[in-house]
Structure formats: structure tokens, C-alpha cells
Amino acid sequence: MLSVQVFLSDLQHKKQLDVAWREWIGEDSATWPQRAVVGAQLDGGLLVEMVALAFR
């Protein structure tokens, strides 16, 4: 995975996102993809939306 854009409905949830991120991606930040986290108004009651760019 090269990069992930994360859209949160409430930036107060970023700490919870960081916990889930480490469980998903791993603890070693040297292996993480680039990440951007921004606040956004999401439709349908969504709390988070992600756009991932990967290359194989």
C-alpha cells in the first residue's frame, strides 16, 4: 500500500483511528503507507471513509 486518505466525520475520533490503524498496519511506522487524516461531512451516518492507493 502506498498511501491512504482518511476522512473522519469528527476529528475527535482520531485517537480511536490511530489504535485501529496500528492493529491493521502494524506498530512499525517505518513500514506505514503515507497517510492523511481530514475532517469531512460524510453521508449516511458514516464515521470514517478511506481511499487507499496500492501497487502490486
Report on the architecture of this protein.
The chain is about 20% helix and about 30% strand. With about 55 residues, it is of the alpha+beta class. A 3-stranded mixed sheet has the order 2-1-3, with no helix packed on it. The longest helix is centred in the middle third of the chain and has 12 residues. The protein is globular.
What are the key terms here?
56 residues; alpha+beta; 60s Ribosomal Protein L30, Chain: A; three-stranded mixed sheet
Helical segment count: 1
Sequence of secondary-structure elements = EHEE
Distance, first to last CA: 8 Å
CATH architecture: 2-Layer Sandwich
Overall pLDDT score = 95
Oligomeric state of the chains in view: single chain
Number of DSSP strand runs: 3
What fraction of residues sit in β-strands? Answer: 25-35%
CATH top level assignment:
Alpha Beta
- Strand line-up across the major sheet: 2-1-3
Major beta sheet, specifics? 3 strands, mixed
Kindly provide the radius of gyration, computed on alpha-carbon positions and rounded to a whole number of angstroms: 12 Å
Structural class: alpha+beta
In short:
This protein is of the alpha+beta class and 56 residues long. The protein has one helix spanning 14-25; strands spanning 3-8, 34-39, 48-53.
